[in-house]
Design brief:
Helix content: 55-70%
Number of strands: 0
Radius of gyration: 21 Å
Number of helices: 6
Number of domains: 1
Oligomer: single chain
Largest sheet: none
Length: 127
C-alpha cells in the first residue's frame, strides 16, 4: 500500500514537472479575446505605428508578431480598419518629436473616440 502511494506521488510529481517544463497549454478563443479587447488592441497597435516601432514592418504583419501566440486573432481584424487608423495617426506625425506626439495622441479624447469609431465600424460584436 505504501509502495503504491509512493509510486503515485512520484508519478504525480513527474507529471507536474513535465507540465511546468513544457509550459501550460492554454487554449484561447482568439475571436472572443479580440472582440472583448478590440479598442485596447487597436490603441496599442496605433501607438506602435505612431512611434515608428513598426516602421519597417507592414502594419498587418506586425500585429501577428506583437500578439505572438495570439496570431490567430489577426483574421478578425480588417485591413480597412488598420488603414483608417494609420491615416488618422499620419495627420499628427508630420513633426519629428514622435514620442511626445504619440503619447499625447494616445491619451487624447479624439484618439480614443476615433479608435472606438473604427472598431465599431468594422466589428459590430466588439466591446
Amino acid at each position: 500500500m505504501i509502495k503504491n502511494t509512493l509510486k503515485i506521488c512520484l508519478f504525480v510529481k513527474i507529471m507536474f514537472c513535465n507540465i511546468l517544463a513544457g509550459g501550460l497549454e492554454v487554449h484561447i478563443n482568439y475571436e472572443k479575446y479580440y472582440k472583448q479587447n478590440a479598442i485596447y488592441l487597436h490603441k496599442v497597435w496605433g501607438f506602435e505605428y505612431c512611434s515608428g516601432y513598426t516602421e519597417k514592418i507592414p502594419f498587418e504583419s506586425h500585429k501577428k508578431q506583437w500578439i505572438g501566440e495570439k496570431q490567430n486573432m489577426s483574421k478578425f481584424v480588417s485591413k480597412e480598419a488598420d488603414n483608417e487608423l494609420k491615416h488618422f495617426i499620419d495627420r499628427y506625425t508630420k513633426e519629428r518629436n514622435l514620442l511626445a506626439i504619440c503619447l499625447e495622441l494616445y491619451d487624447s479624447k479624439e484618439y480614443q473616440a476615433e479608435v472606438e469609431r473604427i472598431v465599431k465600424k468594422y466589428c459590430k460584436d466588439c466591446k
